[in-house]
Write a structure and sequence with these properties.
The structure is a single chain. The protein is an alpha/beta fold. The protein has a domain of 184 residues: Alpha-Beta Barrel (TIM Barrel). It has an eight-stranded parallel barrel with strand order 1-2-3-4-5-6-7-8, surrounded by eight helices. The radius of gyration is 17 Å and the shape is globular. The chain has twelve helices and eight strands. Helix content is 48%, strand content 14%.
């Protein structure tokens, strides 16, 4: 399944995109959580491959990653499990450059594709050093999603948008992942800048924590990534059922907001 084509088609139908994040290898619950959030209305699922120094992640996802590593999670094991999933929507993996380079770019990209993964996010791999990875990923049909921050200059933003595949991930605030009380004041401008620069799906993530914030973000963006709030459902013992129920509330809020906007426009 092609990630970008799938998301473009969903967007063209008037749907706001919803991409939940689940930490791979998190005990016995993570596979069921992927299935639950897919059933609840996700358009794609981002799966984290744990790393011991997750520089982009805040306390919730750090804790989940450490728990997964403590029970023996590895890239190979996570991908072997992903290969058994049949959820009907794209999967993308998020991890850091260290484990990718340790395995080798070509081998890592091939491992993902063989597991049925459609895209990858490597947030600490800078644009200027992207070519060896993007060449390896492109050779096996794996789409690489790039991130843009509120501080990214316009000329670099254009280059990021040109190179990004699947969607462009707009980071809504300066800082690590984690739940926030309110949507960052930088988020909507980040989305507007992306929409002015590219026709690729523009998706906001980092710090988007509830249905109200997701709706607000989607007033400018094509969709949202929601991670820490989903992972918190798993860490707190709510299991896949709680994660699915949470994602269902986000999907319903986005659907209701879209219906209201259509009614006003009509």
């Amino acid at each position: 399944m092609k990630l970008e084509a799938h998301l473009r088609q969903a967007r063209a139908s008037g749907r706001k995109l919803l991409v939940p994040y689940v930490t791979g290898g998190l005990g016995g619950v993570w596979m069921e959580a992927i299935e639950a959030v897919a059933e609840a209305g996700a358009d794609a699922v981002e799966v984290g491959i744990p790393f011991s120094d997750p520089v982009m992640d805040g306390p919730t996802i750090q804790e989940a990653s450490l728990r997964a590593l403590d029970v023996g999670a590895t890239p190979a094991g996570i991908n072997a499990d992903l290969a058994t999933l049949r959820i009907g929507i794209p999967l993308l993996v998020m991890t850091y450059c260290n484990p990718v380079a340790h395995m080798g770019f070509e081998r890592f990209a091939t491992l993902l594709v063989e597991a049925g993964v459609d895209g990858a996010i490597v947030p600490d791999l800078p644009l200027d050093e992207l070519d060896p990875w993007s060449d390896a990923a492109g050779a096996v049909g794996l789409e690489t999603v790039l991130l843009a921050a509120p501080t990214t200059p316009d000329d670099r933003l254009r280059r990021i948008c040109e190179r990004s595949q699947g969607f462009v991930y707009g980071v809504s605030l300066l800082g690590v992942t984690g739940e926030r009380l309110a949507l960052s004041s930088q988020a909507l401008e980040m989305a507007r800048r992306l929409k002015r620069t590219t026709d690729k799906p523009a998706v906001l993530g980092v710090g988007i924590s509830n249905a109200e914030q997701a709706v607000e973000a989607c007033s400018a963006a094509d969709g949202v990534v929601i991670g820490s709030a989903v992972v918190r459902c798993l860490l707190s013992g709510g299991g896949a059922e709680a994660a699915g129920a949470y994602v269902a509330t986000i999907r319903q809020a986005l659907t209701d907001a879209g219906a209201s906007a259509d009614a006003v426009a009509g």
